[in-house]
Design goal:
By secondary structure, this protein is an alpha/beta fold. The protein contains 13 helices and 14 strands. The strands form three sheets. Strands 3-9-8-7-6-4-5 form a seven-stranded mixed β-sheet, with helices on both faces. It has a five-stranded mixed β-sheet with strand order 10-11-14-13-12, with helices on one face.
Length: 424
C-alpha cells in the first residue's frame, strides 16, 4: 500500500509498519519482502538464509556440514583429461568453489570469483580492456584503486576520467565510442557519496559499456548492484564479507555466465586466486554477515547522530542522516546505511584530528574496515596517502577528516570512547 509521501508501506508478516525501499522491493528489515509468496513458490531464499545455504552443499564423501579445506594443488585423474571437474587448484579448488558459489548467491549473480585481494579482483576487471579503451570512474574512491588506475594501467594506454557522479545526466557528455567501463563506488571512500546505480546503468543501456560497482562499503546485505543493472560487483572481501580482520581477499560477481567465464579465464591465466584456507575463512564470515551488518548499521547510525550534535564536529558524512545530501537516494537504493562514518572538525586543524585519534581506546587506530572491532583512520595520512595532496584537496579529503569503521561493540561504550577523546 502507499504512504502519504507516495512510498509503499510494508504489510508483510514482519509486523513492522515501516517504509519500503522501493527500488529493491525490500522493507528495511531484510528478511521481509512484499513478494514473499512468489519467492516461496519459486523456492528462492531470503538473504538471511542465503548467507548460510546459498549455493552450498554438504560434502558428498562424508556428509560434512562445513566445507572442508582442500589443501591440495592437484587432483587425481582417471584417464588423461578424465577427472571429477578439478584438475589443478589455480583453475578450481572445492573450497574456493564453495565460496564463489556463495558469492554469486548473495549478490544475485551468475558467477562468483575469489581473489587473493580486492586489488587483484580490480586488476582482473581492467584486463578485460584493450589499449586505447577509456574508463569513467568516480572521483572519490579508495586510494589503492586510484593508484592502480593511474600508476599501473595508464602506461598500458588505458585512459581514466575521474568525475563526480552527483548528477548522472552530466556523465553522458563524457561517453565516447572508446568508453568501455564505468567504475563506481557507492558509498564512496571516504566521503560517503552515493551514486545512483540504476540511473548509470540506464544511461549506458544498449552501449558496449560495462558497469562495475565496488560494493565493499555497503556489502550484499545492504545493496545488490546487479539487481540495479550493474554487470560486475567487486568486494574487498577482507572487509565485511570476512568480517574478522583475519584474511586478505577479493571477490568479483558477474551478472551473466559469459562475462563470468571471461573473468575466470583472466583469473586462471594471471593467477591471482584465493587459497583454500582463506576461502574457508571468508565463507565462514559470510554466514554471519546479516547479523553483523545489522549491528554495524544500528551502531553506525547512533554514532553519526552523536557526532552530528557534537560541538567540536563540523561535517558528518553518513547516508543514514537526513542531513546527507543524498539521503533520499539511500532510502531508494540501500536497505540500511552501514557502519562507515566520516567527519571533520570545526577547527579544520590536522592536529586536532591526530590528537583525537591518538586518544581513542575502544576504537583502534588502524587501516582497513569492516571487522567486528571498531577502527579509526586518518585518510590523508593513511588509506588515501597515495592520492596527491592537491587531488585530495579538490575532492574534499581534508587533513582534519577522520573515518570510522563502527564495529559491533556496545554503542554506549563506543560513544563514551569518542567523548573522552574529544574532551581530553
Amino acid at each position: 500500500m502507499a504512504g502519504s509521501d507516495g512510498r509503499r508501506i510494508c504489510t508483510e508478516s514482519c509486523d513492522k509498519n515501516v517504509e519500503l525501499r522501493p527500488a529493491l522491493d525490500f522493507c528495511r528489515f531484510v528478511g521481509c519482502q512484499t513478494s514473499k509468496a512468489s519467492r516461496q513458490k519459486k523456492n528462492i531464499m531470503n538473504f538471511n538464509t542465503k548467507v548460510i545455504h546459498g549455493g552450498q552443499h554438504h560434502e558428498s564423501a562424508t556428509g560434512s556440514v562445513n566445507v572442508p579445506v582442500f589443501l591440495t594443488s592437484t587432483f587425481a585423474q582417471k584417464s588423461p583429461g578424465i577427472h571429477s571437474g578439478y584438475e589443478y587448484s589455480r583453475a578450481a579448488n572445492p573450497t574456493r568453489q564453495a565460496l564463489e558459489d556463495s558469492l554469486a548467491s548473495i549478490e544475485n549473480g551468475a558467477r562468483g570469483l575469489a581473489f587473493g585481494s580486492g586489488l587483484a579482483a580490480i586488476d582482473c576487471v581492467l584486463k578485460l580492456l584493450n589499449p586505447g579503451d577509456e574508463v569513467i570512474s568516480v572521483d572519490d574512491l579508495y586510494g589503492g584503486s586510484y593508484r592502480m588506475f593511474v600508476r599501473l594501467f595508464e602506461k598500458y594506454q588505458l585512459k581514466f576520467t575521474f568525475v563526480n557522479f552527483d548528477d548522472v545526466s552530466k556523465i553522458e557528455s563524457l561517453i565516447t565510442d572508446k568508453t568501455k567501463l564505468i567504475w563506481l563506488e557507492t558509498p564512496t571512500n571516504p566521503l560517503m557519496k552515493l551514486v545512483d546505480i540504476k540511473a548509470v546503468t540506464e544511461l549506458v543501456k544498449g552501449k558496449d559499456i560495462l558497469v562495475a560497482v565496488d560494493n565493499t562499503f555497503a556489502s550484499p546485505y545492504i545493496q545488490n548492484p546487479i539487481d540495479l543493472g550493474a554487470d560486475i560487483v567487486m568486494h574487498s572481501a577482507t572487509k565485511y564479507l570476512g568480517g574478522h580482520s583475519d584474511v586478505i581477499a577479493g571477490a568479483l560477481i558477474a551478472k551473466d555466465a559469459e562475462l563470468g567465464e571471461k573473468l575466470h579465464f583472466i583469473q586462471f591465466a594471471s593467477g591471482g586466486i584465493l587459497g583454500p584456507h582463506d576461502s574457508y575463512l571468508v565463507l565462514r564470515g559470510i554466514k554471519t554477515l546479516a547479523l553483523r551488518m545489522q549491528r554495524h548499521s544500528d551502531n553506525g547510525l547512533e554514532i553519526a547522530k552523536y557526532l552530528e550534535n557534537h560541538p567540536a564536529v563540523d561535517q558528518v558524512f553518513y547516508p543514514g542522516l537526513k542531513s546527507h545530501p543524498q539521503h533520499d537516494l539511500a532510502l531508494r537504493q540501500m536497505r540500511e546505511s552501514g557502519g562507515m562514518v566520516s567527519f571533520t572538525f570545526k577547527s579544520g586543524k590536522k592536529e586536532d584530528a591526530i590528537s583525537f585519534l591518538e586518544k581513542l581506546k575502544v576504537f583502534t587506530l588502524a587501516e582497513s574496515l569492516g571487522g567486528v572491532e571498531s577502527l579509526a583512520n586518518h585518510p590523508a595520512l593513511m588509506t588515501h596517502a597515495s592520492i596527491p595532496a592537491e587531488k585530495r584537496a579538490e575532492l574534499g579529503i581534508t587533513d582534519d577528516l577522520v573515518r570510522l569503521s563502527v564495529g559491533i561493540e556496545d554503542k554506549d561504550d563506543l560513544i563514551a570512547d569518542l567523548e573522552k577523546a574529544f574532551k581530553s
